[in-house]
Amino acid sequence: MSGAQNRLEIKFRLTDGSDIGPKSFPAATSISTLKETVVAQWPKEKENGPKTVKEVKIISAGRILENNSTVGECRSPLCDVPGGVTTMHVVVQSPPSDKEKKSLQLKQNKCVCVIL
User: Fold this and answer.
1) Among 4, 32, 80, 116, which one is least packed by beta carbons within 10 Å?
2) CATH number, domain containing residue 27
């Protein structure tokens, strides 16, 4: 394999249609490193940017990518063109507020067993 095949050009598409990148990453780069890159390079003028890696979801070829996966493992033979740029979508999901947490706790199903 050549060095070019061990690297992937990736641009990150934000929900407003703007992009971060493209930037070249080795195939061994973890998805968690990609998320760190997104957080670090998030445009300062955009509101609702991620504050931590935990708030970032990266989607490629319709799949949410797991932190412990590598870029090489996530390649799609149908979508990735050699020498081309792969677009990965970025979704920011802020952690729930205290009010939302309480609401979620109240909505949880509770099961009660009655022994007669």
Assistant:
1) 116
2) 3.10.20.90
